[in-house]
Design brief:
Layout (H helix, E strand, L loop, with lengths): L5 H14 L5 H15 L4 E10 L2 E9 L4 H11 L16 E3 L6 H6 L1 H10 L3 E9 L2 E10 L8 H21 L8 H12 L3 H11 L4 H8 L3 H15 L4 H9 L5 E2 L5
Parallel strand pairs: 2-6
Antiparallel strand pairs: 1-2, 1-5, 3-4, 4-5
Helix pairs in contact: 1-2, 1-6, 3-5, 7-8, 8-10, 8-11, 9-10
Length: 263
Amino acid sequence: MPHLPGEVWEALDPAILELHTQADPKQLQTCFLRRLEALIPHRRSFFDLCAPQAGRLVFFSPVSLNMSEAELAAYYQEYQYSDYVAWSFASDQPTVYRDSNMISPAARESAAIYKQWMQPMGVYWSMGSTVMGAAHLLGSVTLFRSREDGDFTDQEVELLRVLNRHLSAHFAFLWPQGVAPSQEGRAGTLASRFGLSQRERQIAELVAAGRSNAEIGAELFISENTVKKHAGSLYRKLGITSRTQLLRLVFDCPSVVVAPPGG
């Protein structure tokens, strides 16, 4: 385990103290990223939340100080399930990883996520951590550097490990079951993007909540045939043909937050 010099601990102390004063998820995410900017130089970073949903892990509400909404959305829509560091999410303990310890340069440079997402942003190296509570994955933090910047050092990995222990403990204390994703908010994002009617949005929310057509009809006081007609219109607007595809759209449509400078 690398030794952290005294000046690093002096910088860590106020960061840890500020972290433990945060009681709102978005404020905590933003605070943590701002501290990381000063402690570990990097080009891009984001901090998302995680919760189990429909039998799988769903990542949502990413916050970034240095990435665009389009860059974040592209990750969740295209690459999160093919990310070569995704194995780290399977552990039941907080994990800090450096991608160069897991993948060779040749494998990285042939990966779609690198060629189509990382390279256009000018980044090459990555490091990250998983935020855990009671063996539940509550979120993840990812940092990137350019090839010219050089890889993250052993000392920086250890620094993130110290911060992540405190982050995991604070998250687990405030939200032991995690921060639940809002299906309503996600359906609202789809509604604005695809021009859904109020009724179509309601049906998207209820499908995401696992309701059958009969249950949706009873809840909205309409017939099952009317539910099917609205669902057909909804599917056409979204360019899909099944409930499975709708669920993927709802759960893979993150509430992206790009924190304003100085905010």
